[in-house]
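Schema walk-through. Below, the input block comes first and the output block second. Nothing else is stored per chain. Lengths vary across the set, and this one has 498 residues.
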Amino acid sequence: MEIRPTLIILITVFSLMMTASAAPSADISEFRITQTSTVLPEIKVYADISDADGNPVQGIQPEQITATSGTDTVTVTDIVPFEESSEGVAYILLTDISKSLKKQQFKQIRDALNAWVEAMRAEDRASVITFGNTVKVVQDFTADKESLKSEISSLKPSDNHTQLHRGLVKAMEMGRRTDPDLPACRVIVTLSDGHDDFAGGMTQQEVLDRMREDRVPIYAIGFHNPPSTREKEAFLKTLGAFARTSGGAYYKAGRTQFSEMYAEMRKRILRVFVVKLSCDTCNADGRVYRLQMNLSVGNKSLTDGSDIRLLPAAYSPIVPTRLVPEPPAEPESWKKIPWPVYAGCGTLILILLICLLRRKKAKPEPQESEVQRGSPEQDEPRDVPVQSPEDKNAAGLVGLKLRLTKVGGDMPSEPYKVNLVDRAVIGRSTSASDVVIPGDDEISGRHCELTLEDGMVFIRDMESTNSTFVNGVPVMGKHRLENRDVILLGRTEFRVTF
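--- output ---
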């Protein structure tokens, strides 16, 4: 009888010890979603769960996290530290090559990036993008450290302008790639003064809008040369806003060496947790839903959310951007032609010119009456109006005005404007389409059709070779379009606004 109380006490103490070991080892001060990867029914979330000192908090259990996607309840199945997940990272090294950086500073950046590449694990990949007068992918995603270091070592601060905004958008496009060998975790790494001085380039708001749709975390180091001014600080503030909005982090450079800041940034990227979720009731319709997550620890509750696009498992909408080698130079075969051939051709041309001049002098002057009557040769050429897609479709009627804006690309392009009264065909054929899309041989002559019915816009594939996609989902029959939906025709994506 005396043993029972002792056993009860031992069991109670053991239970308390087990509970304590399973509980987080420190107070949580931050719960933040950095990135998501969705291929239904699985939703993978990369989350920063840290204490007040910025250290990752261990011991979080799946049952402490609840999640919803729109109105659907999402089940949390697992949570592990990233470094224990056997996953890799696809790094996008976005590098400023403008003269705003001094040579010694740029050398520090090169050394820091080379050290970053050297520390890559077997599962990691990296690409290099430069931005200055232009934006260029100088190295596609690869695990080859020597190729990466060779490209990085060849970079120099040579350009007079800085296309920061377009560089960020290009990096986000790279982050959306769906190559089968690329890790799901993608990050953009950059150092900049935050100043985009390229006239006619992308605006700050355009970059923020793209971030909300294509969330790839940006880890940025903000830096400018002295003296400090309000304008320079404002540019750095913008860079910080880009980083935080994207789910990344911002570091302001001080007296710390760039190499140390890059190393600290890499540690922060790798300290996230991989949270696996499952949603059997979520509809893979290609639309954007709000993923809301809540973490509860004791009496404390932290919440964060992110917009996710629900795509089916069988479709990968992004066409990989491959580097195309320069074509070999054409052989200068003209140098092999004997000089007498050139002499003979020149003599023949000279004889023809002399004959033409003699005939012109022998031709009688026209009579005044003939000049007054006019002839086809003397009539002024008439301007033939060119019928735009808007004019061709509307025929003077008032309809719903749509804009098809190309998504991606290194240079801005004018949107296609359509005044949709009844229907409009989109395709590559200049004779059979109302909206002609040139330059993409994977778009059919009559690819798809837009129709306006009771104030609603619908899209229908016209049995095209490569199908029509809306938000990553193939169109079957007639599909209603919403404002800002993204349609994919061939290799070209357009955002539809109305």
